[in-house]
Every structure is written in C-alpha cells, then in structure tokens.
Amino acid sequence: MSLIEVSAGGSVTVRHYPRDDSDFLDRDYLVKGVAGAILWRLLREHAATGRTDFTTRELRLDRSLKLPDHAENLDARLVLLRRRLEERAACLQIEKTGRGLFRLVSRCRITLKDAGEADAIEVV
C-alpha cells in the first residue's frame, strides 16, 4: 500500500466511481461504500461553496448517501474514513470539532473526477 504524501501547495486528484462509491487518491484506493459516498459529498460541497464545517445530522438526512434506516453506524463510517486518510498521510483530513461536528481540512489543491462524468472540478 503506497502513501499519498502531498506537501502544502501540492495537489491530489480524487477519483470517484459512483457504481460502488469507491474513492481513489490519485491512483491509490482509499475507501468505498457509504464512507466513499460521504467523502465525495463533502468534497463536492467544499468545491461548490468553500464550506469546511459539517454535521453528522446533515449527513443522516442526506438520502443520496443511502444510509440504512436501521442499525445506522454513521459515526463508525466517519471514523473509518478519518483513519484511512490518516494512514495514507493524505493532504485531506477529517477532524472532529465537537459532538456531531467535524471539519474537512485540505492542505493541497484537489481535483475531483467523477468516473461517470468527463469533466473534472478543481478545488483550490
């Protein structure tokens, strides 16, 4: 497993495959399923609005994430996503900022590529 280490001012391409909601940092697999859908949603929201602070409540209410109605384990999926980003020393991180609150932290330029679309979105 290779590490994605991007210094401040560097760049990373996040590639999303909607079929199974898998996400790759550059060419390296990161996560799939609900955790992948969560990361993709956060990155798209950040690209569109510049927003970095989010709540677990808004994720629970987002039907596009396809969270199960019963035995939901959103917090566990966020922990998994946070750990995967930390393990890879990624320039993207998720920090817990309070109960039900977290922040998307980016230390690099991010390019978003949806495998289902031709165009890429660049986040500065």
Provide a short characterization of the protein structure.
With 124 residues, the protein is α+β, with helices and mostly antiparallel strands.
Task: Looking at this protein, list some descriptive labels.
124 residues, alpha+beta, five-stranded mixed sheet, three-stranded antiparallel sheet, disordered N terminus
What does this structure look like?
The protein has one domain (11-123). The protein is built from three helices and eight strands; from the N terminus they run βββαβααββββ. It has helices spanning 34-49, 56-61, 74-87; strands spanning 11-17, 22-25, 28-31, 53-55, 92-98, 101-106, 109-114, 120-123. The strands form two sheets. Strands 3-2-1-7-8 form a five-stranded mixed β-sheet, with helices on one face. It is globular, with a radius of gyration of 14 Å.
Number of strands: 8
User: Can you give the mean pLDDT?
Assistant: 84
What is the number of independent domains?
1
Number of helices: 3
Share of helix among residues? 25-40%
Strand order of the largest sheet: 3-2-1-7-8
Order of helices and strands: EEEHEHHEEEE
Radius of gyration, taken over Cα atoms and rounded to an integer in Å: 14 Å
Distance between the termini: 27 Å
What spatial form do the alpha-carbon principal axes imply? globular
Low-confidence stretches: 1-7
Query: Tell me about the biggest sheet?
Result: 5 strands, mixed
Structural class: alpha+beta
Beta-strand portion reads 25-35%
